[in-house]
Give the backbone structure.
Amino acid sequence: MESLTLTDIEQKYYSDLFVYCDTDNTKKVASNGRVLDLFRAAQLPSEVVLQITELCGATRLGHFGRSQFYIALKLIAIAQSGLPLRVESLNSVKDLPLPRFVVGKNEAEARHAALYQDTDSQGLYPASATAVIPRPPGRGHQNKKGPPTSTAHPVHEVIQPLAPSIEPQPEPTSPVVSPHQSPPTSPHSWRKHKRQHSGGNADRQPVVAATGAVWTQFRDPQAAPVSGDGMWSSHSPPPPSQESWVSFTADTPPSSAIPAMHPSSVQESTTIRTVASAATTNEIQRQSSGYDDPWKITDEQRQYYINQFKTIQPDLTGFIPGSAAKEFFTKSKLPILELSHIWELSDFDKDGALTLDEFCAAFHLVVARKNGYDLPEKLPESLMPKLIDLDDSAEVPEPTADVGYSGSPVEVTPNKSPSMPSLNQAWPEMNQSNEQWETFSERSSSSQTLTQFDSNIAPADPDTAIVHPVPIRMTPSKIHMQEMELKRTGSDHNHPTSPLMAKPPEMPEETKLPASMKFVAANTVGDGYSSSDSFTSDQEPITRQRSQSGTSPEALKVVAAPPPPPPRPHPSHSRSSSLDMNRTFAATSAPGQPQSSTIAYPPAVPPRPLPTQTSLPHSGHRSEAEGAPGGGAVLTATSPQQIPQQPNFADFSQFQAFAASEQPSSLPEVDIHSEPGQTEKPSEGAGPLRTVKSDGQADERASATVNSAKGSSGPIAPPPPKPVRRRLKSEDELRPEDEQHGPQKSNVIAAVLATQPSIPRSVGKDKKAIQASIRRNKETNTVLARLNSELQQQLKDLLEERISLEVQLEQLRPFSHL
Amino acid sequence: MAVCIAVIAKENYPLYIRSVPTQNELKFHYTVHTSLDVVEEKISAVGKSLGDQRELYLGLLYPTEDYKVYGYVTNSKVKFVIVVDSSNTSLRDNEIRSMFRKLHNSFTDVMCNPFHNPGDTIQSKAFDGIVSGMMVQTG
């Protein structure tokens, strides 16, 4: 045998391996399985291995003596380095890396091999106490990062003549396997591991020693394998001065320490090995599983975490508030930014508090971070709160309770106290629903979607439960609804707010019931034009609803009925006059003239305002344009259309009946220019209006009484004015009726108010009737809206003409001067 | 896809602002700053229906020739401003709303973090991720 000079490291390493292979403890390693496995683990081609064995003389001897073994190991190292196998190179090659044995018969071996190198590098770094944290369990993977102190790669192949300031500890318990062992070279890892076991060294030492014995072979010789146990026993627990944070590290499960353990006593190891094997198998398994998952929390770690959790929150099923957690984790002296990121990762349900699982995850992340591991971008799966811990759940029954349902951490939220974060979480959802609602409302500007909007508002709007499903915000659709409502009451649909403003007492009712009314109207209108008879009767309960605030039954009933699609323009009506009028007139078999007149009428124009209220606007308006009479005619013409929806007009008509009787005489002589004069007189205007209204009201009521009233008041009066006004109306389409609608609205409201008490109350109206009335209202509303748009367009056109005329005038003026 | 997203605190200092880096970021900073005036105006305008009735989504604050600015304010007067390229005409109002909703949710999560001091700039990776997802994917 050639003389073999080994460095100390090599010596230790080889001795460890030899001891490992020396199962029979005969100081002569036969070609037993261990050796073969070892050589196989060297990942060398079989012929190389054969060559090595040949070179070292084992084939000659038939077995591996210590020296042969050492030579073989060195040859393996040479081969792994890529150098040709030469006996001469045994001693010539300097700085030969240690032979690496990977993927041994079990991963643990390989891991330990890696740990060997890890410990090599560890020895290089006299890490501070706080920095020396045992690698997380399962970190023994060869290629994984070593302990935090070892920034060197696990494949650190440089033989490090360790000169760390490792405490030279004698090994009382372990017979020095190799006399070369130098306690001073014991790596930091030992100290580190010692620290780990500060919490329970005594208990763990035997186990650790045993397990270490198994793996010692792969231990870095410089790691003072023999001194491992000694170090264990002799190492004093880490200075208690270390903050609890570090003590935590000390308590890091011995699993990670086990690999680092050296077989302190080979002899002991043999005896304890069997005992240790059982213990180590678990560790190995755990490490094996941790081999793939560096983030797994071991039992000891978890126990430690749980203990820490208890210090903050005695109830393991409870939660740690964010402030307490902040204080706790701030002690780790990590930068706030990293702590913030850790919190983001660990607070799974985003509620600002930590359950036990979340706390363990956060703690684990902090530990990892302190060990130098980078924080993951996402929470590792092993750290996610899960239903059942892989570790024994003896101490973690609570995770099942609070975290409970894996994959549904949101469910935990309800268990937690409704903290602000929960509210904040709920808020976006509510806001979302509100926004959805808003979206719907904004899109419902088209009458087509009005139905959907209404059907959606019921479930989405929390106010639905309240008596009146009144949207709070004035959305276009709402305005539309209110317009319809107002139209029913004879108010101008173009100015839904004006009646509200005009009649403050009316507002609460109207605001309460616009939706309901709208629903009713929609239903009414949508149902078609069949229930004309019931329509009038429908108006009564509806108006009664208006009169009585808080009519929850009707409101709910109304809400229950989804408004039908808005009515289509009647094909027979060019200007889409109110179908209601047709119906009403047909039903009441009113004079045929009114029917035809109404048919030809443009969309219902809100009735004329009350004389008191509309006098000024009317006069002002009428004086402006020549088409005033037409507007008045229109107004009066349309008022009948509105009247059907205002059953309460009956009384009003009665008031004005006799007054109207005076007017009819004047009405027939109305001509375009005289009309302004007449209309300018509010009373006169109101008179014909009211008569017309009464006419319409009579139609609505379908009651002979009203008809009689109408007849008495001015049976003749209404019809004559209508044709006249119709003509006027057709002539003048410019008359914006907005202003008139406004005062008319108020007039209608007053009429409604006046007539409300007189209207008998029929609470038990059929829903169908109400729906019919709603439908009619909607129809009228749409008709009026169309009319409005057309009038607006005409107004624009006229304005343009006026402008052009003025321009021409300006152009001509200079000529005039010439 | 937004070109610039900004979060402004109640006191009108930026908590978070990020723009597409390819362009002059200062221009976006200025735009966001000027949009604050519009936001303030919109907030104060709805005085009749105070508090909860006020719409959180402010909508289009003002358009310029190059881009449009949308605003959103929370109940705690924290403002979100999104600047969108005008050429991106396909962005509907709903999409902007959903963007604001996501922003608000992630902002809430940031606020829940006990390690985040209100008033500090937002340094949350999750928030950055959300914002990146909404920014123009040019770089």
In short: Chain A touches chain B through 30 residues (CB under 8 Å). The longest strand of chain A covers residues 28-30. The two ends of chain A are 136 Å apart (CA to CA).
